[in-house]
Each structure stands twice: as C-alpha cells, then as structure tokens.
Structure prediction request, 244 residues.
Amino acid sequence: MDYGLLKKYTKNLNVLFVEDDIDFRKEFFELLQDIFPKVTAAVDGLDALNKYKEYYTQSNKYYDLIISDIKMPNYDGVELVDAIYKIKQDQIVVILSARNEFNYLLPLVNLGIYQFFTKPINYTNFLDDMFKLSDKIYHMKLNDNTNIVRIDESLIWDKINKKLLQNDTEIILTKKEIILLNMLLSNNGRICTAEELINIIWFEEFDINADIRNLKNIISRLRKKVPNLHIKNIYGMGYKAEFK
Prediction:
C-alpha cells in the first residue's frame, strides 16, 4: 500500500465513529486517527445523530464517512442509519458487527449500507479497504465540486473565491494575475486572444495604453511564481492554460 497516497486521500476527510463499548471505542478511535486526521467519536446512536446534525449546522457539510457499531443503546445501528439516510440518502456508512448480530444485517443491507466488517476486526483487511474507500470518496469529491478547476495533482483554482491553491495553501496573486488566470481557466482550454486578455485585465485603467508587452510581463511573473502552471502561447492566436 502507498501510505503517502493514503494520507493524501484522507487528509481532508471527516469521519464520525460510533461505538458504545468504552474499551473498543478507545482502541479503534486511535487506529482511525492513524488513517484519518479528523475523527469524531460518538458513544451511541442518539449521540451520533446529534453530532451529525451539529456538524452540518457548524460547517454546512456532512461527514464524509460514518463507521458505526450495530448494537447500541439510544438508537441501534439500524435506527441510526435509517435516520441519517432521511437526511442524506447517499451518506457513506460502514458497519462494524459482532458475529452474533447478523439479524441486524438484512435491514441494513436493505437500507443500502456501503460495507460491513466483522468483529474482531482484521486490521490488515480493514486498512486495505479503507484505502480503496478513501480513494473513492476523494475522487467523488473532486468530481462533485464544479467550482474547482484541477490544474494538476497539487494545484487547483477556486472559481468562486478566485484563489489559486497548491497543496491546500493559497498562492498570493496580484489583481491582474487573478483576472488573467480566471479568464484562462474559465474558458475550458479555449485560446484567449492577446487583445481580449488585455481589454479585460486593463478594463478599469483608461489612462494606461496597455499592449502585448504588458501582458507578457504578467504571464512571465505568473510562470515564475507558479512553475507548474502551464500557460501556453499559441503563435499568432493567443494564450491558453493547459491541464495535466
């Protein structure tokens, strides 16, 4: 397993872990923290449902993954999953079950549970499956976020906030660099002519007679600031941003 890739997939995932057994909760919570940096523990189904709702209220988003026991007081696993699916039908839930709890499994299968693990947990198999699941969630989030332009594996453009992020760290840009980059990246690879770029970048500056040299200076500074940002000059036509 590529642990570097695992950390990449899991670093921004928020996990809710639900378990009523104190000793197992402590042990398994520590294991989950080695995989997922952001883990919240709940002591039973009702506590989990409350924390699920609170998390959405505070962050305006849902947990990426729920890992839950089945047999618990104050909402068992079936009741918890049923309540959560009424809030978010496509919530990804993984269930941990003892061997004598199979009578719970059919209702959970009917509800559409993503995966089951039988206690005692085989940690090697669990880790392998968490890698696959984290990969799936990571790419689902990329595809769902239509306000994000992914330039390469480390570089993204936030179209709403007009921010360039490298490995989740913002690269500080000037106003003109932001206008140029937004124009190039919002056109889905279309070639933008030098004239239209100049007209947009210097739109508010009536007293400046900008020309191709001014545009080239901005592009040169941007290339130096962000080496893996590929702005290509199409001879005789204009400029375009290339995506990896």
